[in-house]
TrEMBL record:
GO terms for cellular component: plasma membrane. Residues 341-574 form the ABC transporter domain. This is ABC superfamily ATP binding cassette transporter ATP-binding and permease protein. It comes from Schaalia cardiffensis F0333. It is found in: Cell membrane.
Length: 578
């Protein structure tokens, strides 16, 4: 069952965004100062034009006009330089803030409890780290500076208008109030649609990712037609949401046209009445008309940024929501594990009221290999995760010495036990980057030692050494080599106990044999728990635990369990028959 990651409340999102900006208060203050200066320079030009018109009507000479024109050129150049400088500093500020936001998201994602990642599904997490971060990126990199420019320009223009001609300047606030009114009408009608669209994109991304990565299974099980119908349904829903948004943006556009053009026409008509009456001069009316037209551009830009702001706001709520995931355990920084792992009365349920493990008791012996076998769905992998400290048990205890595994700090937990699964991952970067994920301070000599232990040193040396780039855009490793890199990480971590959840089951037979040879070096001298789907693993183990329906029903050596003639003997006969 998929449970979506939380959405941050508006108040928390607002506080986090303000906190991000407050951390760069000096940069914000510099940008505000530069944009205020640029706005002041921009409002000087209409004022000078109005003075020139009034001066010409009053019979002022050409020298006076030329001086004003020269002053106008100075203000235009100053406005250009200040606006460029302000924009540059604003973009630098935006990049800095965005980098901090992105780093915070990555930190939150990599510290998510594995249980949360599995229940949330891949689509939700992928969309938050791609689509949502892209939307916020545009707003922070460009939107912050643009919005600041808009606010400064509108405020300074409004003030200059009231200084130039108070009797007519009241039209400008009406224009601004009209824009605010249109925005207030628009926003509550579109935010729910944008939120639903973001959620639908998350679901679509998850289905698409799962279908592509499991394309062979989809074909083998003839699920293609059903997946197509699912995609068609989701795309239709996304289209309906986008169509609704497009209609609303159209109404927003019409409303903005009305509230920005009508005031200009009204000002010209009133000017035609007030100038002959001697209330205003032609120059002051010209100045106000230019201000009214000048303020129209930032108000028009506001229509675009209002829309983008809503998208970015929803995305910010989703990004900050990742931080709200509660840890599934409370670690004790002082806890230390010493001694073999013991499972005491452990029960576990993925969903409340539906336990998959029932009162498991098991003690590992230091240096032994314990195989866990049983039919599919018996709870073998779940028990392996309990032993590896990945999931806290619903009831009971999993201890190393006197310490609960789920209370151990991450570094200490991985010193005691590590889980090796059948999935292998190659990360974009170099071989050294991939292996060093296990221990960031490892030297090159330690990396080579780990690679040698798993038999990967020769091909790594032949194909470029530790600096060879792998993953997307680099060398594509075979499944066997990718699993060798994963095993080299384990060797570098050097845990006391290894839990192998059928680490070679997804490989072809030849690759599986190669990886099993590599495993020998890693397993030597360690306690090993092997979750076995192939019974030859159990035959070679020191002890075998047989699980049926979430309980251990038999425990002993291979020979002892065969002699008992119970569940294990039946499994062995069936496997031998195959």
């Amino acid at each position: 069952m998929s449970r979506r990651l939380p959405i941050a409340p508006a108040a928390l999102t607002r506080r986090r965004l303000i906190g991000l900006l407050h951390a760069h208060a000096g940069g914000v203050a510099l940008v505000l100062f530069l944009q205020l200066a640029a706005a002041l320079a921009s409002v000087a030009l209409p004022w000078i034009v109005g003075d020139i018109i009034d001066g010409i009507r009053a019979g002022m000479g050409g020298a006076w006009v030329r001086r004003l024109l020269l002053l106008a050129v100075v203000f235009v150049v100053a406005n250009f330089i200040l606006a460029w400088w302000a924009e540059t500093r604003a973009r630098i500020l935006g990049e800095t803030v965005f980098a901090r936001l992105r780093d915070g998201l990555v930190d939150s994602v990599v510290h998510l409890p594995l249980s949360t990642v599995e229940t949330a599904g891949s689509g939700d997490l992928i969309s938050r780290t791609t689509t949502d971060i892209d939307r916020v990126q545009m707003m922070i990199r460009q939107g912050l500076s643009t919005i600041l420019i808009l606010l400064m320009t509108i405020g300074v223009t409004l003030g200059a208008a009231f200084v130039a001609a108070p009797s007519l300047a009241w039209i400008l606030p009406i224009e601004i109030i009209g824009v605010v009114g249109v925005s207030l009408w628009y926003m509550p009608r579109t935010i729910p649609a944008y939120r639903a669209s973001a959620a639908m994109i998350a679901v679509f991304s998850g289905h698409l990712s799962e279908t592509v990565t499991q394309a062979e299974a989809v074909d083998a099980l003839r699920l293609g037609a059903g997946r197509h119908r699912t995609f068609d349904s989701m795309l239709a829903q996304m289209w309906r949401l986008e169509r609704y948004g497009a209609w609303m943006r159209g109404f927003l556009f019409l409303g903005m046209v009305a509230v920005t053009l009508v005031p200009i026409a009204a000002m010209i008509l009133l000017g035609a009445i007030l100038v002959p009456a001697g209330v205003l001069t032609a120059g002051s009316v010209t100045t106000l008309v230019m201000y009214c037209y000048q303020i129209r551009t930032p108000l028009w830009q506001a229509t675009f940024w209002i829309d983008e702001l809503q998208f970015a706001w929803i995305s910010l709520q989703r990004i900050f929501g990742v931080e709200l995931v509660e840890p599934d355990r409370r670690t004790n920084p002082q806890a230390r594990g010493d001694g073999p792992i013991r499972v005491e009365g452990v029960s576990y349920a993925y969903h409340e009221g539906r336990p998959v493990l029932h009162g498991i008791d098991l003690e590992l012996h230091e240096g032994e290999t314990l195989a866990i076998v049983g039919p599919s769905g018996a709870g073998k992998s779940t028990l392996g995760r309990m032993i590896a400290g990945i999931h806290p048990p619903t009831s009971g205890h999993v201890r190393s010495g006197q310490a609960e595994l789920v209370e151990l700090p991450e570094e200490e937990l991985h010193r005691r036990v590590v889980l090796v699964t059948q999935e292998h991952h190659v990360f974009v970067g170099t071989i050294a980057d991939n292996v060093r994920l296990a221990r960031v301070d490892a030297s090159d000599e330690e990396l080579w030692a780990a690679l040698k232990l798993v038999g990967a040193d020769s091909w790594v040396q032949d194909e470029g050494g530790l600096g060879m780039r792998v993953g997307a855009g680099g060398t594509q490793l075979t499944p066997a080599r990718a699993q060798q890199i994963a095993l080299a990480r384990i060797a570098l971590m050097d845990p006391a106990t290894l839990v192998l959840d059928e680490a070679t089951s997804l490989l072809d037979p030849e690759s599986a044999r190669s990886v099993e040879d590599s495993l020998g070096g890693v397993l030597s001298g360690r306690t090993v728990v092997a979750i076995a789907h192939r019974l030859h693993t159990a035959q070679d183990a020191d002890r075998v635990a047989v699980m049926v329906e979430g309980s251990i029903v038999e425990l002993g050596t291979h020979e002892e369990l065969l002699a008992c003639g119970g569940e294990y003997a039946a499994l062995w006969r069936a496997w031998q028959g195959e």
